[in-house]
Specification:
The chain contains ten helices and no strands. By secondary structure, it is mostly helical. The protein folds into two domains: about 55 residues, Arc Repressor Mutant, subunit A (Orthogonal Bundle), CATH 1.10.10; about 170 residues, Tetracycline Repressor, domain 2 (Orthogonal Bundle). Helix 1 packs across helix 3 and helix 7 crosses helix 8. The longest helix has 28 residues. It is globular. The relative contact order is 0.11.
Length: about 240
Amino acid sequence: MNTKRNRMPADARKTAILEAASQLLAERPWEEVTVSGLLDAAGISKGGFYHHFTSREDVLAAVVLRLADDSIAAGQETLSRVGEDPVARFSTFLTETARWELSHAGKILAIVRMAMMEGNAPLFIKLGEESQRRCSPIIRGLIEDGASKSFFNVVDLDLTTELVMNIGRMRWPTFLKAQDIADGGDQEEAWRAISDRVRVEEALTNRLLGLQDRTVRFPPLREYRPLIDQDQDPA
């Protein structure tokens, strides 16, 4: 492809590169994406690319952190429309971040698949730690608020925050496995893997928060169905 490359402000160039990388990531394995392909997709020059990034790996890292930031922002934005009830606020944040991630499942699943490839673990561990560092204050604040108002009964605030975040992060390898099962033709088994995972995650989260009479809720199971439906392709 020979895309015309126009001069644009530095911020716009960086955004164009990240958007192009995100789109390519959803369409093909990252190992097939070249710097040249990124230049064509973003419509920028080689100089414009290297002004912001030193390699494809730098672009990938920026894409991962951008996805994490956008997911967090989606959850935070909805908190401004929720009252003071800690259980409702926690449910809203978890639900809206999960919905945002599901709407970008293609990109996230591609990243998870790459993370599981031999030799890629160190990079993705580092990126996972950075993503967790960005989200941790919000989750911790929501839990602390619920505990201070006696809605949550947690043994240790920091450990509970860490466990809740790790439980959520690890849903995606299960979703990837379910997608592979569905691609192999067993839709029923794939759906069972997803639905069991969501139910267990919800139950564990509520147990960690010490909830008994009320529960933190995740998105309804039907919203996870596009992960494996053959006629739907999550972005």
